Every structure is written in structure tokens, then in C-alpha cells.
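Appendix B, record 7
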Amino acid sequence: MTQVREREQRGGNPFREVLSRPGALRFSAAGFDVEAVMTAAGGRPHWGKMHTRSADYLRRAYPRFDDFVALRDELDRERRFGNAYLTQVLGS
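C-alpha cells (predicted):
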């Protein structure tokens, strides 16, 4: 089952959250690709949710992305906490 909840963030910006059971991924009950719709509307993925965006995309979407990657590089030089998904979203 997939739910879409809408609410306001601080500053009055709209916030849409798509909740889905594991395995359903980005598809709603209606069959459309929620991630594509949200991306086209200028939405940014939640850091705690799985998505298919790349590091290049996230760098453009988040102004301080490189600051975060630099901190990760400093704190986890050996990538003990890394995995394939983090390589996709943060780069090597």
C-alpha cells in the first residue's frame, strides 16, 4: 500500500511524503512513478528513503552536498560504513 501525505515545512514550503511498503518502491497504487513526478516538480529525495538519484543530481539539488561529502571523507576514509547505495548517492 502506498500513501501520499502533504503538509507544510518550516517557512511555509509544501512537503509531500510518499510512503510505501518495502518492495513497492516508487510506484503508487495508480501505477505512476512517484519519483519521476516529484523530481519533475523540483522535489528532493529524503535522505532516509531509498531513491534512484545519483550523486551528480544530488549535488545540484543540495547546495551543501560537497560539504557533507567532505565530512564523510574525513570521518570515514576507509569507507567502513559504505555500501553500493551510498556510492550511488554520494559518489566514490
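Remarks on this record: Residues 25-29 have pLDDT under 50 and may be disordered. The chain has two domains: 1-48, 53-92.
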